[in-house]
Amino acid sequence: MKKLLIANRGEIAVRIIRAARSLGLKTVALYSDPDAESLHVRLADERIHLGGSAAKETYLDQDKIISALVLTGADAVHPGYGFLAENAGFARRVREAGAVFVGPSPEVIALMGDKEQARKKAIELQIPVVPGAEVTDDTSFLAAEAQRIGYPVIFKAVAGGSGRGMRIVRTADELAAKFQEARDEALAGFGNAAVFLEKFLESPRHIEVQIFGDSFGNIVCFGERECSLQRRHQKLVEEAPAPNLHESVRARLHVYAVRLGKECRYESSGTLEFLVDGGTTADSPIYFLEMNTRIQVEHPVTESVYGVDLVRLQLEVAQGKSLDAVPAPQCTGHSIEYRVYAEDPSKGFSPMMGQARYISRPGGPGLREDGWAESGTKISPYYDSLLFKAIVTAPTREEALRLSKVYLDEYVVEGFETTLGFHRWVLTQPDFVRGLVDVYWISRNYDGTVVSAPRATSPFVLPPPRQSTPPVDVPPKR
Ligand code: ADP
Q1: Which pLDDT tens digit goes with each residue over 379-388?
Q2: Which of 163, 190, 291, 372 could pair covalently with 112 via S-S, beta carbons 3.0-4.6 A apart?
Q3: Would you call 250 a catalytic residue per the annotation?
Q4: Is 455 exposed, middle or buried (CB count within 10 Å of its CB: 0-12, 13-18, 19+)?
Q5: pLDDT confidence of residue 189
Q6: pLDDT given at position 165
Q7: Class assignment of domain 131-199?
Q8: Distance 233 CA to ligand 1 centre (A)
Q9: Which atom of ligand 1 has the smallest separation from the CA of 165?
């Protein structure tokens, strides 16, 4: 591999370009109209304008991306996350064009990237899954299944992602209507109306396991991440390792993840997501949820406690590196990631648009920032509004929390609301501080309070200048 094309944008494109450069690879950026001045475009060695704004006509347009690959003579493609990262057809086309797809094989993506198939595979391997029903559009069959499983139940899109296409059903009489709503949202969001039904868990934790495979059948486990702090079924804060997790639950999670990875001879970075009921006692139930066959947004917390560069490792493994020589992963310390989105937490985390007039950021030991937003960056309505991720790492969770307050208090983003005001608030909450949140904790506990930065460093909000002393009368010269 000599030249890597990055089929993505935003912070992950920047992250991949830096990893590629550290390995001496040339990089090619792709960009849409609104991204013309983006950081990833300026950092890359070459750039190709995709023309257009919507994801469909840019970062999701396979024909344009494959043309760019041929045109630039790049010999590898990194898909990042989202967009085409879990599209088996795209991975196949990259290979057919004679380039390396940095990720698992198209066959593995097709198998494990499909929620229903992955679930079947887990059952086959004796890994527990949430009790559920077969995919069908026969509502009387679904009603009988819901009765068998027991209410409440949840409909989820087979092709789902980003928490869309989900509907919770509490009673039998709302089943048909919710089924239709879920199908409509799934069709609009993913072009596939298929939904499946499973038991709704009232207060589970979301814990996921990072695995990594090479082309020789080695599977390495880089521990777990706690991802329970969510709004709208989407993650806001993640940490590694998961706090208050019984050691035998942790061990079981790792065993299940490695079993799944080995079974499909998984290659590259992969994440197995689980729901855990409680987690503090040895007998806490674990349910396999899905597999993400790509790098995750929250990968930096794992990197911080395992001292590994997962994106660099993806590039190395794609070039044939064996994991035999990689020392057994050791987890040291504690790391917490805060996702900073252009969103208004006081208005139900509604997405914001506009221009970041000014961004001021702290720096120092234990702080890592992965981002792309700069003073002047415009946030368009076309894509996800993640500006950057602040990742705080310290020897213990307690110290990481204390350091988080120091750094988050200092960040200033002017121009629109961000999730920073929520993060400062959540740091004052005993449940969060004690590591006792579940995926519906925000929906039950958050009243929209935002905490602003106490020591704003923005020039727009400087305190008024001190009164100058009145001029002293100079005595006339004699
Ligand atoms: P997506 O692929 O859309 O992100 P997931 O299946 O990964 O969907 O689930 C996302 C989130 O939705 C989970 O982290 C959890 O908060 C919630 N969720 C999913 N399944 C259930 C369930 N059976 N019961 C309760 N909450 C669930």
Answers
A1: 999 999 999 9
A2: 291
A3: no
A4: exposed
A5: 84
A6: 84
A7: alpha beta
A8: 6
A9: 3
